[in-house]
Amino acid sequence: MILSLVIALAFNLSAADDKKKKPAPKAAAKKPTAKTKGKTPAKKAATKPAAKKAAPRKAPAKKAEPKKAAAKPKPKSIFPDKGLEKAVRAQVFAKRNTDEPLTAADVAQVAVVRGNKLGIKSLAGLEHCKALASLDLAENEIVDLAPIKGLPRLQQLILHHNKVKSVAPLSDNRALQYIDLNQNNVSDIKALNTLTNLAVLYLNDNGVKDLSPIQKLPRLYSLYANNTGLATLKGVNQIRWLSSFSASGNKIKDLTPLNGLENLSFLMLENNQIATLGPLFKMLEADYKGKQRFAPFVRIYLKGNPLNEASKKGIERLKKQHYTRFK
Fold it and tell me: Is residue 68 in some structural domain?
């Protein structure tokens, strides 16, 4: 009996140990009720923070290349006429043998410009040559003198064999002493009456028919007006210092306007319509008997005139006196 109690007690203790070792059964999931049916149950927020996506690696920045400075546009030449530019360039030492454009600064001190037979039509750009003293552009095709208007130092202007029509732009060039406008298209010289320093003036082969506008020029001593259609010498006797005067190849008949000239050394009146030399003889004889300032030295050219007999005899008489030389 005691043995059976011990076995029963041992069996009970073994069963109790097995219960402790077995895990408790999981609670059965609740079936959705009618109220919750059709709804998705909310998920519980994760306790752990979601892992952040790794940001894509940026490509290493390229070193910025230094920006090249924009090329400055080359300055244009101030001389649109290629022939004139060539003539001026010869006087600009720094650019004489280059094709770099000439600027106003380059030519500011240019004093002399020479360019014959270069086909020059325009003087544009010369207004920048403030120091220009001598301009020789003979045998070109120049018409307009406006670009050289008022150049303060311009003393010598040589433009023979061009196409100049108006000398009006020269009225402000007060330093001018020498002007050669032979073989142009000039007819009016009124604008030259302001040039008080003018000493030599060439007007051959133009259309100048009146010399009176320049009669008051105080320093003019050489005047050439051949083949201009000149019919009168009115006003010439007012040019007190006139030493050389030529008006050959015109329509002159009367020499009376020469009376009063006391400094003549050359008088050229060939191929005109002069018949009588009476006024000229009176002027010469008065000087012989008086101051003898010009009569003993003057050379007179009268070839090609229809001189009357009295004039021819008067010439022979003066020749015998070994004074005036007639040609």
Answer: no
